[in-house]
Sequence to fold (127 residues):
Amino acid sequence: QVQFVESGGGLVKPGGSLRLSCAASGSTLDYAILGWFRQGPGQERERIACVGIHGGTYIIDSVKGRFTISRGSAKNSMYLQMHSLTPEDTAVYYCGARRWSSGLGCEAYAPSEYAEWGQGTQVTVSS
Fold:
């Protein structure tokens, strides 16, 4: 049974930076699509970035230029580097994974098409 675990969240002041990590255990299979999502209080889960198995990435406009997604060297791992954080970035951040890709860019897949999820890590941006 594969498990994805996020880490690196915490409390940071506006303008600060955090680096989130997502690591998988319990599986030797490759997951073609990995994505970062966030869910603020009373909000729906929002996909903010994703990366395909060959390294192609997608980032939503509202965080472009501030956030960077990358795959790690370990199987099914990835990072989210976040800079210039604002209170609007406060949310629980989740990593999600999809086993297969049909050749489309990672942005083609909605959250409902991700099969595996981590438990989330809280990011709070506050002075």
